[in-house]
Amino acid sequence: MAPCYALKATSLGNQRRQIRFGKLRDALWPSLEAKLKQRDDWHLTDILDYEHGRGDPFAAAVRATRMPMVITDPAKADNPIVFCNQAFQALTGYTREEIVGRNCRFLQGPDTDADAVARVREAIENGHDVDVDLLNYRKDGSTFWNALYMSPVRDDEGVIRFFFASQMDVSDRIEAQQVISDQKLLVEREVDRRTSDLRAALDARTLLLHEVDHRVKNNLTMIGSLLRLQVRTIDDPGVVAILDSMLERVDALAVVHRQLYQSSDLARFDLGSFVHSLAADVVGASGRSNIMLDFTTQPLFVDAANASALGLILNEILTNAIKHAFADGRSGRLSVHVEHNIDRGIIRICDDGPGIPSTHRTKSIGTSMITRLARQARAEATWSDNAPGTCVTITFPRSETEV
Predict the structure, then answer these.
(1) Angle at which helices 307-320 and 271-286 pack, to 10 degrees?
(2) Cα separations (Å) of 291 from 316, 320, 323?
(3) Which CATH class for the 267-403 domain?
(4) Which secondary structure element, helix H or strand E, spans residue 65, and what is its range?
(5) What percent of the chain has pLDDT over 90?
(6) What's the CATH superfamily of 45-169?
């Protein structure tokens, strides 16, 4: 009886151990099976029989790297994935069974850029590398920015056997770039708004200053008209000559303000074009057709604040030339030359008349006026012999805002 009992006890113990082993097997098998399948995934890289043959270090690196990688086979329909490493599965949330055999486009979604996808398709069709950022979708529907790099793998004969692709989640970089882009857009909009406000303020200021210059010009024209009416009532030739001289100066100021309110530039005054038109007006107003004008002029800008003083100086020089160089109906030539250097403008007015003695020049009212106005405009006037005739050279600062 005892041996029979022992045999039964031993059988019972074996049954218990088998039951415990079965439970342990059932508990561990899923993870073990997954590891075995993952091991099978790794062995798939041995199909890269390229350069170093089976089992080369490159294949081992693809299996072990933490960078997501896939291999596709263009010889099969729709260029399906034939290998994906564990990092790719972790990135996308799909298992190997859900990935292998499918084209990579299954990661695309409604917001994936069609142009970027077209670049990948063109690279596959033409067999060259491509580097592109794609918006991809995980299995759970969440998105990530995928920095895709894909390159063909060719055999010894140059035939493409596979496409190798690496991926990297660059969502943080893309999001940072988007934040920067959004901030830049906000700054640009704010700059545009403030620029618009400044432009509106400048337009209002321009309109106001033009209105002031226009009214000054009108007032000067009215003063000129009043002086002309007064001249008609005076019989004394000396007084008439004095009033005519004042009229010429008033007219010159009116021309300056007319040009100021017609200009779109508030800060600068083009003295080069002004002296050209002023010389033609002075000779025309004299009624002299036997005075020839020679012009060598160019744009020459000065600060608007100095426009009136310089305009009066030029008017005084031109009218004096008409009166003294071409007195008694004498014909001749009057030349106006405009130039500039780095920081100063130069206007030279020359006649071919008899010249004016320096002693007479220092006693004239016109010379005194030129000297005072020159100091006001930080200008300098010099007289020289033109052999024959006289030259007056005016030098003055150019506009500080000139470009």
Answers:
(1) 40
(2) 17, 14, 12
(3) alpha beta
(4) none
(5) 27
(6) PAS domain (3.30.450.20)
